[in-house]
Amino acid sequence: MENQDFTRIAAHMLIVVGPSGTGKSTLLFHLLSQRASCVFSRSTTTRAPRGREKNGVEYDFVDVDTFKAKIDAGEFAEYASVFGNYYGTPHRMIRNNVEAGLDVVFDIDVQGARQLKTTYPGAWCLLIAPPSMEILEQRLRARATDAPDVIERRLNTARSELAQTDLFDFTIINDDLHTAQNLIVTLYDAMTLRAQR
Ligand code: 5GP
Questions:
Q1: Which of 19, 49, 106, 175 has a 20 to 30 A CA-CA distance from 7?
Q2: How far is ligand 1, taken at its centre, from the CA of residue 149, in Å?
Q3: How far apart are CA 132 and CA 4, in angstroms?
């Protein structure tokens, strides 16, 4: 692809990062339900499907050998190992969606966000932040889904993610859910006004 293609495609990319417990999934779900012109970026992963997840819906589920072959073939715009499994974003998925007139919203970790910004420097990166580390800790404990050591690990990951301030173009502090929902839609609407598109 030519450089100008990367610039044009980047203007259709909203990368959303944030520690677990910040309400990132709820906000993404809200945005996707409010704006039919945006689509969720479907990643490829080596982790096993959970619950009702289906291949080709939440993720493309593949085995490790297949994933490695895709790395070697240069199919990924970014990939990372997260909690022991590989996750990657195919270039082709991004391109196909943008060619179809859609904007692509990514839910990936900070390592992946950094790589995507290297390939597509014009993509916007939004951080969903908790009001404070104390509140994040309270929220994780209140969910009661994780063991104490897992909560501790999530909090450490959160601290290192939130510290990567050079990566984020925008921050939404998810204090009041309704306000945060309005803000993510407003940010998306602003993205659709970008000049390069
Ligand atoms: P889960 O297994 O719970 O669906 O996702 C675990 C983590 O992997 C989440 O933090 C999610 O943001 C991240 N993730 C999902 N897809 C990708 C991807 O394609 N690339 C990267 N780098 N991270 C991803």
A1: 19
A2: 20
A3: 40
Q: For ligand 1, which residues put their CB under 6 angstroms from it?
A: 43, 47, 78, 80, 82, 87-89, 107-109, 111-112
pTM: 0.94
The pLDDT assigned to 1 comes to: 65
Number of structural domains (the chain) is 1
CATH number at 131 reads 3.40.50.300
Tell me what pLDDT residue 144 has. 77
The verdict on residue 152 lying in a domain is: yes
Own/partner pairs for 69-77, CB < 8 Å, 24+ apart?
70/44, 76/44, 77/115, 77/116, 77/119, 77/120
With respect to residue 107, please indicate whether it lies within any of the assigned structural domains.
yes
What count of other Cβ atoms lies within 10 Å of the Cβ of residue 68?
13
pLDDT of residue 103: 98
For position 195, what pLDDT does the model report?
84
Under DSSP, the state recorded for 42 is: P
| Low-confidence spans in the chain with pLDDT less than 70 | 1
* Atom 19, ligand 1: residue with shortest CA distance: 88
80 domain-assigned: no
pLDDT at 82: 85
Task: Select from 22, 47, 67, 82 the residue to mutate for testing ligand 1; criterion: most ligand atoms less than 8 Å from CB.
Answer: 82
Residue 47 lies in a domain: no
